[in-house]
Amino acid sequence: DIDPTQITFPGCICVKTPCLPGTCSCLRHGENYDDNSCLRDIGSGGKYAEPVFECNVLCRCSDHCRNRVVQKGLQFHFQVFKTHKKGWGLRTLEFIPKGRFVCEYAGEVLGFSEVQRRIHLQTKSDSNYIIAIREHVYTGQVMETFVDPTYIGNIGRFLNHSCEPNLLMIPVRIDSMVPKLALFAAKDIVPEEELSYDYSGRYLNLTGSEDKERLDNGKLRKPC
């Protein structure tokens, strides 16, 4: 019930030793990244994405700590280009190894009422960039984060949808409970390849046959 922007994380006290599970308070769920800054166990067939917490501004570890990846921003060269049928798109100009952080889906973080207001104001000709991320907690609670890059955003707004994407979105928390919507390479990506992710969030999530045919407002879901 507390505003997530008001919940800040205490920093770890790792000074003489590197940040490691068991001693670093930021790594209670295990290590997030390997020695090459790649997200661990990506696409390993797990039933859910584990929480990712990076070291933050209150941590005593250095900026070279390997638990600081998303906060460092873009590390590759990208290009916004005109696609044949999908409008604008985004592609990489260099090789991206599987598991590496690509970019954040950045924008205004909104409350539910403001999201509804903006959606109601949209016309058929307007592009909808608002994304809703739902995180399911073990207690049964569902945490929702709404991000709108329509007016304030980054290159993430040019990413197109694919049912066989090369990116995977993971909520990453650094300084507060408000997550960064971080996109990681789900496989090795070659230069000039278009970058995409699954807007539905189903990529690499286990779904049953019943879920695939579930009705939405009395209508079958649109096939991809």
TrEMBL record:
Which residues does the UniProt record annotate as the domain SET? Answer: 76-200
Per the record, the major location class is nucleus
Q: Name one GO molecular function term.
A: histone H3K36 dimethyltransferase activity
- EC number(s): the record gives 2.1.1.357
Q: Does the keyword Methyltransferase apply?
A: yes
What's its top-level EC category?
A: transferase
A GO cellular component annotated for this chain's UniProt record is: nucleus
The reaction(s) annotated as catalysed by this protein in its Swiss-Prot or TrEMBL entry are:
L-lysyl(36)-[histone H3] + 2 S-adenosyl-L-methionine = N(6),N(6)-dimethyl-L-lysyl(36)-[histone H3] + 2 S-adenosyl-L-homocysteine + 2 H(+)
Task: Provide a GO biological process annotation.
Answer: methylation
InterPro entries in the record, alphabetically? H3K9_Histone-Lys_N-MTase (IPR050973), Pre-SET_dom (IPR007728), SET_dom (IPR001214), SET_dom_sf (IPR046341)
Task: State the signal peptide span.
Answer: none
| One Pfam entry name | SET
Question: The Pre-SET domain covers which part of the protein?
Answer: 10-73
Q: Which keywords are on file for this protein? A: Chromatin regulator, Chromosome, Metal-binding, Methyltransferase, Nucleus, S-adenosyl-L-methionine, Transferase, Zinc
Localization per Swiss-Prot or TrEMBL:
Chromosome; Nucleus
Name of the featured protein:
Histone-lysine N-methyltransferase SETMAR
Q: What is the lineage of its organism?
A: Eukaryota, Metazoa, Chordata, Craniata, Vertebrata
Gene symbol here is SETMAR
